[in-house]
Amino acid sequence: xxxxxxxxxxxxxxxxxxxxxxxxxxxxxxxxxxxxxxxxxxxxxxxxxxxxxxxxxxxxxxxxxxxxxxxxxxxxxxxxxxxxxxxxxxxxxxxxxxxxxxxxxxxxxxxxxxxxxxxxxxxxxxxxxxxxxxxxxxxxxxxxxxxxxxxxxxxxxxxxxxxxxxxxxxxxxxxxxxxxxxxxxxxxxxxxxxxxxxxxxxxxxxxxxxxxxxxxxxxxxxxxxxxxxxxxxxxxxxxxxxxxxxxxx
Length: 249
What we know:
Blueprint: E1 11-14, H1 23-31, E2 36-39, E3 42-45, E4 54-55, H2 66-78, E5 82-85, E6 88-91, H3 105-128, E7 133-138, H4 141-146, H5 148-161, E8 165-171, E9 187-190, H6 203-210, H7 214-224, E10 228-232
Parallel strand pairs: 1-2, 2-5, 3-6, 5-7, 7-8, 8-9, 9-10
Antiparallel strand pairs: 3-4
Helix pairs in contact: 3-5
């Protein structure tokens, strides 16, 4: 697979809402000079050991469904914003998706079937709306670790449907262990790297904090001949924001 050659991607997450969107919702994306937006339809799991994924139902917010994602993309296209479709799983109660873990082979198979139904639904949508990038999963560390053969087969199924560029959104402490980067176009990282223990870190403190992470990222990119795509990142305007940026409470 040839390496991806293109201009820098400046993206934002276009978060799902209850209703239709229009140009007033897209205007802030344009204002920050974004050229990409991530569209995130959702599937829901009852708990970390439950294999059923509920998705694309009339009980969800509009923006979390296929119809909603398509409408959002239509509005973004009017402003010449490119899109990455990034279907995500939400575990009820807000538990971390990276810890989804089945306890029986039967449940693993059921989860695989459910996830395939979920992700292939949106691979089909991605192809039909000509999405530039499709993200095959987000922060599913244990699912990937314990079912690597499934993921390799899933990628082949996705490629049979969708002909654009592929990535996976690995958590900041997961990406170096993800086994299938050579089957994708981008090494995707949710880049919530801890940078500083200071209450109010300076710009220089943050640059210093990156020094321990950047060589690892660069090494993997060169080793696999794949560009890096930060599929998520962010640091809040709060005290100790650089300590554990993934904590939101």
